[in-house]
Amino acid sequence: MRWFDSHVHADHLRTEAERRAMIEAACVAGVFRMVTVGGCVESNRAALEMAAQWPAHVRAAVGWDRQHTGQNPEEVARLCESNGDVVVAVGEIGLDFHYDPGTAREQRELFDAMLALARQRSLPVIVHSRGAETATLEHLRSHVQHWPGARDRVGVLHCFTGSKEFAHALIELGFYISFSGILTFTNARELRDVAKSVPLERTLIETDTPWLSPAPYRGCLNEPARVVLVAQALAEIHGVALGELARLTWTNANDLFGWPES
Ligand SMILES: [Zn+2]
């Protein structure tokens, strides 16, 4: 079985040895591909370095995430331009009115600038949304109207924790829904119910490393190898064989990020 972790932060890894250990542990677990995500200066840099060093296993996303509203969007355009061979998405970007309600207006401006950049470069987006379902849909609806790429490969809503209605509105817009280790938490019954309603053809899996380690490692530093635990939970929810889930999520992620399968 081959697994694809669609969302990994790498800026917490301080040394090359730590990065290498993460990749090696992932491969041992069958997690042969991952997207390392940006969002700030350090994570953009780490994502690009990982992809340059392990091109067989890693591609990168770059962007300014919602806390970095003072940053210049042009800088991300420049990163895309000079790393075109490894940048497969703009992200992570988005809106969080749960943790940062005070900067809603600035977040929305930055989100729009990042979406415009994604359209310019025909790159899918990796979107964070918390406490901002209505606003997120508003921005993404107008993004999709001008999106020059394939209709069903607009992007992914990462670490999904929202409502069933939100998930299905996103799917209609051409988004994938990505589920994390939260699926394995005992108190996540509602989310498992939402996951069951999302067709596996539109589902991705992720660890959100180093956050959200799945049970029984809850609270520990997460790593891509543990995406298999997310997959096991999802296979159980859908009542499908693990091999079938591997095949679908592998294909979905490669399709979205335009990464040839062989
Ligand atoms: Zn993330």
Outline the secondary-structure elements.
Elements: E1 3-8, H1 16-28, E2 31-36, H2 41-53, E3 58-62, H3 73-82, E4 87-96, H4 104-120, E5 125-130, H5 133-145, E6 155-157, H6 164-172, E7 175-179, H7 189-197, E8 203-205, H8 227-238, H9 242-257
Residues 7, 9, 37, 92, 208 line the site of zinc ion (ZN).
Write a short abstract of this structure.
The chain is of the alpha/beta class and 262 residues long. It has nine helices and eight strands.
Description:
By secondary structure, the protein is an alpha/beta fold. 43% of the residues lie in helices and 17% in strands. The chain has a single domain, classed as TIM Barrel (Alpha-Beta Barrel). An 8-stranded parallel beta sheet has the order 1-2-3-4-5-6-7-8, with helices on both faces. Strand 4, helix 4 and strand 5 form a beta-alpha-beta unit. The longest helix has 17 residues. It is globular, with a radius of gyration of 17 Å. The site of zinc ion has 5 residues, from loops.
Radius of gyration, CA atoms, in whole angstroms: 17 Å
Judged by helices, strands and strand pairing, the structural class is alpha/beta
Q: Rough shape?
A: globular
Lateral arrangement of strands in the main beta sheet: 1-2-3-4-5-6-7-8
CATH class: Alpha Beta
For the biggest sheet, the summary is:
8 strands, parallel
β-strand amount: 15-25%
What's the overall average pLDDT, rounded?
Answer: 97
Order of H and E elements: EHEHEHEHEHEHEHEHH
- Please give the alpha-carbon distance between the first and last residues: 14 Å
The percent of residues in helical segments reads: 40-55%
Number of domains in the coordinates? 1
CATH architecture: Alpha-Beta Barrel
CATH topology: TIM Barrel
